[in-house]
Structure formats: structure tokens, C-alpha cells
Design brief:
The complex is a heterodimer of chains A (306) and B (93). Chain A has 306 residues and is of the alpha/beta class. Chain A contains six helices and 17 strands. In chain A, the strands form two sheets. A nine-stranded mixed sheet of chain A has the order 14-15-16-13-9-12-11-10-17. Chain A has an eight-stranded mixed sheet with strand order 2-3-4-1-5-8-7-6. Classes of the chains: A alpha/beta (306), B alpha+beta (93). Chains A and B meet through β10, β11 and α6 of A and loops of B.
């Protein structure tokens, strides 16, 4: 098989201030399904087009923001291989027992120098709803809300992203699909482990561990328009869009959940092959890179994070 | 109506300075302010930006307060020192 090692983003865990409001947002508006609630109150969500147990975890807390993002690896033995490589790189690795999140096997985790916790795991039970695999219909149950098909990627803000670039490419075998270089240094990187234009991205930011957005994949530009209708109908706080990114070419809307965590709905984007060169952007064109139609950044892009 | 929202609808006239607008949902902290006078009620605000001690002193996120009388506010936003435009060495705070 061609695709080995890290397969894809498996799940992200975010903190929310008000769980009932968050659940209404993520299930009714975004269109996810609640799989289960754990004994500690964390709630596990998924899109109906995903096979695995869950891809989005909400934890009630007094602050909004990012707890952890985890990637699924192809083989159980990959966990031991990556643990060795992460430790050799110099980051202490800890172990999370199977079942700490329902439906998931053991995980390994460590802290990036940007202040973000990253984990890897291999085993996930499947859960309903999920696609049928024999004579499958295009869906088993009618998509609802924004018709999210999967948790797609996240953009995280923190310091030392040049170290993150080296770590993800040299230790986890990611590729850098695109980057933005300012006269005073590296501003942003888009990293992929797959044929998607990005699986995770980072923007340089003085405060560690910050969260910019988690993105859900929609089927097409028409569904982005449908999502925009829902945002207005339900008075959801919108950041920008519908618009398009020059970087990744994805069609997009940025908006906020009821705790101020930014979400994105994302459609399209090019296919990335690991032999493709890195696309680069400079200070003069970065506005077009981030928001292709506006051709400039909005105030919130660099300053509004949780 | 929450304060930021009232501004969005053009209902706050003659402010000396526009209220900063971020997530509008009590999470990001860019609209942090101190209420110097007046009554209000609050919806949940991230403790990363308004601690319990802050809240007792009248520190709020403008997007998360509902005025119940005339209010006097002083902005205490973390973004006032931000440099203009993108930079790899952004100033914060």
C-alpha cells in the first residue's frame, strides 16, 4: 500500500463553556451525530460519513480552546516506531490507556514546542451512523444541518513553528504543501500526511497552545452556500465568507461556536502528492493567499484565537 | 441585547471608540473591558481572559454583557498593542 504511517486527523478535543449550547451547534447546525457521553462528561461526536467511533470531542471547562489533536496510524506497530522517533527527536512521550476515550485503543502523546499536545493511535471501533460498505447508498440517513462529511483539519497558533515544520516532516513523515514567509521569518505552514492539501497547519504566534479553527469538510461549493444560509438563519457569529483560500484553494466560511472557538466549513482544495513541491507565499501576496476574493487579511485572522 | 451586538445593529451612538469585535461568544478576549459604572448581567466568559477576581472587580468581555442601565466602560483589550499587518514576530499584549 502506498499510504503508510500517519493516515489522517483522527480526532480533536476542544474545551467549551456551555455544553448544551455546544451540542446544539455541533449536532444541529454543523450536522454531526452524538455517539456517546463519557463518565467524565466529555461528549463524543462524529460525521455520518466517517466509519470510526468519533472524530470530535467536547470537554466542558471554564476556558475555550484546544486540548489535543490526534492522528490515526496505519498499523499498531507504527505506534512503537513513532514513539522511538519522537523520543529520539527529544520530546518526552507519554501513554494513554485504551478506553480513556470510548472506542479508542492505546494512544501515545507529547507536547510540541508551539504548546500543543499531539497524539497518535491505531485502533478505533466503528460506530453508527456510518457508511454501508456492500451496495452502499450515497448516505444511510439523510445529511442534516451543514451536512459535514468529516472532521478535516485544524489550524493552531503558537511559537516555534519552524521547529514544528522540522518535527512533522522529519519525524512524522508529513510534507509541507504551502508556507508563508515574511521578511522577518516564517509566518505559517500547511502540513499534510495524505493527498489533502492540509491535515494540520500552524501560524506563528507569541502565545503557546492557541487554537484558530477546526474544519469540517463539505461536499461542494453549493453546500458552502447552504451552510451560509444556516449561519444567518440561526444567528451564528460569522468571521468571514463564503470565500476561497488561495492557499489550498479551498472554498470556505469561518464562524464561531457558542464558546468562541472558530470553525470552518471547507470544500474542494487540490490533491497533494508527496513529490509535489512546496508552494510559497510572500508578504505582498499573503492576503490573497488567505482570503482569495478579498485579497487581504481581516483583523480577526491574526488576533482572534481561543 | 449583548453590547457588541447592539453596536453591530448601530444602536450604540457616539462612542469615543468602537468596541473591538472578535468571536462575539465570550471565548477570545479581544473585547475585554472594565465596567466603571452601571448595571449589567453576563453570559459565560472564558476564565483565560476574565478570572473570578476580575469579574468581581467589574472586568467583562463586552460581547458577553447585557446592559441593565447606562454603562461607563474602559477597554482593557489585549490587542491594543498589536502591530499592524502580519509579521512573523507579532507583538501581543
Amino acid at each position: 500500500m502506498a499510504h503508510t504511517g500517519v493516515l489522517r486527523p483522527g480526532f480533536i478535543q476542544l474545551r467549551v463553556l456551555d455544553m448544551p449550547a455546544a451540542l446544539e451547534h455541533y449536532t444541529k447546525r454543523i450536522g454531526l451525530h452524538q455517539v456517546t457521553e463519557g463518565p467524565d462528561g466529555r461528549v463524543y461526536l462524529k460525521a455520518a460519513d466517517e466509519f470510526d467511533h468519533h472524530s470530535f470531542v467536547l470537554r466542558r471547562a471554564d476556558t475555550a480552546g484546544f486540548d489535543v489533536m490526534a492522528f490515526k496510524v496505519r498499523e499498531e506497530s507504527d505506534l512503537d516506531m513513532f514513539e522511538k522517533r519522537v523520543v529520539e527527536w527529544g520530546y518526552p512521550v507519554d501513554h494513554v490507556a485504551a478506553g480513556e476515550q470510548p472506542g479508542l485503543g492505546r494512544r501515545i502523546g507529547w507536547m510540541l514546542e508551539s504548546g500543543h499536545r499531539i497524539e497518535l493511535y491505531h485502533h478505533a471501533d466503528q460506530s453508527d451512523p456510518k457508511p454501508r460498505v456492500h451496495n452502499p447508498d450515497v448516505w444511510e440517513i439523510e445529511p442534516h444541518g451543514m451536512r459535514a462529511r468529516r472532521f478535516d483539519h485544524a489550524l493552531l497558533y503558537g511559537p516555534n513553528i519552524r521547529r514544528n515544520l522540522d518535527f512533522f516532516t522529519k519525524v512524522l513523515d508529513f510534507s509541507c504543501a504551502e508556507r508563508v514567509d515574511m521578511p522577518d521569518g516564517l509566518l505559517a505552514i500547511w502540513l499534510t500526511a495524505s493527498m489533502k492539501a492540509h491535515d494540520i497547519a500552524f501560524v506563528n504566534h507569541p502565545e503557546p497552545g492557541k487554537f484558530h479553527h477546526a474544519a469540517f469538510e463539505l461536499e461542494n461549493w453549493n453546500d458552502i452556500g447552504h451552510a451560509a444560509d444556516i449561519l444567518t438563519r440561526y444567528d451564528v457569529s460569522v468571521d468571514i465568507g463564503p470565500t476561497r483560500h488561495g492557499i489550498t484553494r479551498g472554498q470556505t466560511i469561518y464562524f464561531f461556536d457558542p464558546s468562541g472557538n472558530r470553525n470552518e466549513v471547507f470544500a474542494g482544495g487540490y490533491s497533494y502528492y508527496p513529490d509535489n513541491p512546496t508552494r510559497t507565499w510572500d508578504a505582498e501576496q499573503v492576503g490573497k493567499g488567505i482570503f482569495y476574493y478579498e485579497r487581504q487579511l481581516n483583523d480577526a485572522f491574526l488576533s482572534v484565537v481561543t | 441585547m449583548a453590547l457588541e451586538r447592539a453596536q453591530g445593529f448601530g444602536q450604540l451612538k457616539g462612542l469615543p471608540r468602537k468596541l473591538p469585535v472578535g468571536c462575539r461568544r465570550g471565548g477570545c478576549g479581544v473585547c475585554r473591558a472594565r465596567v466603571l459604572a452601571g448595571d449589567y448581567r453576563v453570559t459565560p466568559m472564558s476564565r483565560a481572559h476574565v478570572t473570578e477576581a476580575d469579574e468581581a472587580e467589574g472586568v467583562v468581555l463586552a460581547c458577553a454583557i447585557y446592559a441593565q442601565s447606562d454603562l461607563t466602560l474602559r477597554l482593557e483589550t489585549p490587542s491594543l498593542g498589536r502591530t499592524k499587518g502580519p509579521s512573523a514576530n507579532q507583538v501581543f499584549g
